[in-house]
Amino acid sequence: MKRILSRILILLLLIMALTACGSEETTGLQDGYYTAQAADFNFGWKEYITIMVKGGDIVSVEYNAENPSGFIKSWDNAYMQTMLHSNGTYPNEYTRYYASQLLEGQGEVPIDAISGASSSWGSFQKLSAAVLEQARQGDSSIAVVNTAE
């Protein structure tokens, strides 16, 4: 009987130790939706990133910008044509590229800039750092980031 009780006690202690170790690990991303947005409009647009984390992994990323009325930058065909001819890229291209790089690298791989969209790349770097920190903390409030600095 003593032997059975001691084995049960050892088993319970082992289970408690394993459970405690698992609860201390907070360096990963917590499941949920997280958003970071620019503090101010830049050339009439306010950029933002929203990510969804599931099972500790980023499963979706949206990076875009909106004007004061809420119109999405990558939907603006006139802006796209102007930017394509002057910069060689356009919002629908570089926003998808930057978002896919964040998704593929899970926030652990540097994002390459696209020529012609380096200003947005700088904003993306700051916004992605903020949104990843929100996800690590499990803070679903919107992080407001000064992207102008």
Shape: elongated
Can you count the helices? Answer: 4
Number of strands: 4
Detail the poorly predicted runs. Answer: 18-26
| Mean residue pLDDT | 83
Beta strand %: 15-25%
> Could you give a short account of the major beta sheet?
4 strands, mixed
Note the run of SSEs as H and E: HEEEHHHE
* Side-by-side strand order of the widest sheet: 3-2-1-4
Specify the helix fraction band: 40-55%
Distance between the termini: 70 Å
Computed CA radius of gyration, to the nearest angstrom: 22 Å
Walk me through what this model shows.
With 149 residues, the protein is α+β, with helices and mostly antiparallel strands. It has helices spanning 2-24, 77-87, 91-105, 118-137; strands at residues 32-38, 46-54, 57-66, 143-145. The protein is 46% helix and 19% strand. It has a 4-stranded mixed sheet. β1 and β2 (46-54) form a beta hairpin. The radius of gyration is 22 Å and the shape is elongated. The model is unreliable at 18-26 (pLDDT under 50).
Task: List the topology elements.
Layout: H1 2-24, E1 32-38, E2 46-54, E3 57-66, H2 77-87, H3 91-105, H4 118-137, E4 143-145
List keywords for this structure.
46% helix; single chain; four-stranded mixed beta sheet; alpha+beta; 19% strand; 4 helices; 149 residues
Give a nutshell description of this structure.
The protein contains four helices and four strands; from the N terminus they run αβββαααβ.
